[in-house]
Amino acid sequence: MKNTVSTLLEQKLSGDKITMLTAYDYTTARIIDECGVNAILVGDSLGMVMLGYENTLPVTMEDMIHHTAAVVRGTKNAFVVADMPFMSYQTSVYDAVLNAGRLIKEGGANAVKLEGGAEVCEQINAIVSASVPVVAHLGLTPQSVNAFGGFKVQGKSADKAKKIIEDALKIQDAGACAVVLEGIPAKLAQIITDRLAIPTIGIGAGNGCDGQVLVYQDMLGLTTDHIPKFVKQFAHVRKEMENGIKEYIRETKSGEFPSEEHTYSIPDEVLAQIDLEE
Ligand code: KIV
């Protein structure tokens, strides 16, 4: 069954936790989709985990469309959300609608995600008015890394916590269909989840949210970089890959690979007809 804005909302109402993972390519999207994850996020985290940038800021609309289209080709049932990259919506309401439209038309996404609270409500409202569902993103919003002075947990003081709650209510009023809560204390995320009618999807925000999202390279143990406290490694895929790659090197060098089993043959009588002199 295709996951939609309505099924995600039903999940909040029934208490069935929403599962979301990132994906950036066709093959991974197919695996995640076939496992039954409710939503796939084509995150601008692709700048870091796929393109090797230090943060998400250099990611372009072209990058997002390219990866979103690949993910959509590999997805049947998951609700596909595409991130709006840095400066594709902050500049004006017009840019926001235009670029959200491109992620839907050219990328094939089901919804877009953008970061921020009160300051982006006009953009959210205009995009939703153009019939594009918007997922908001509050707390540790990675596009604000320079303003925050690093990737730091947000909402730890009373003032900052209140501001995040106010922002959550504002983005809901502006028409957001869900909100990602990243890097905030679990009790604050619980308060927001209880106060909002729309689903909250947490990452580093405790288990009181309506759902969870993780970057797949982190949760499958593909990265060796710093692993944040909130990440659980559910598998150790890097080790498996290393084992396979090292075995390939060993068998190729020793001549064990390719064996008969992985080799095409030609009948001897055909071979005999080939004039090697020519
Ligand atoms: O870009 C991304 O992967 C995200 C998640 C961390 C929520 O925004």
Write up this protein.
- By secondary structure, the protein is of the alpha/beta class.
- The chain is built from twelve helices and eight strands.
- The protein has helices at 5-14, 26-35, 46-49, 61-73, 93-105, 121-129, 145-148, 158-174, 186-195, 216-219, 237-254, 268-273; strands at 18-22, 39-42, 79-83, 111-115, 134-139, 178-182, 200-203, 211-214.
- The chain has an eight-stranded parallel beta barrel with strand order 1-2-3-4-5-6-7-8, surrounded by seven helices.
- Helix 5 (93-105) links the parallel strand 3 (79-83) and strand 4.
- Helix 2 packs across helix 4.
- The protein is elongated and about 85 Å long.
- 43% of the residues are buried.
- The model has no long low-confidence stretch (mean pLDDT 97).
- Residues 22, 41, 43-45, 83, 180, 182, 203, 213, 215 line the site of 3-methyl-2-oxobutanoic acid.
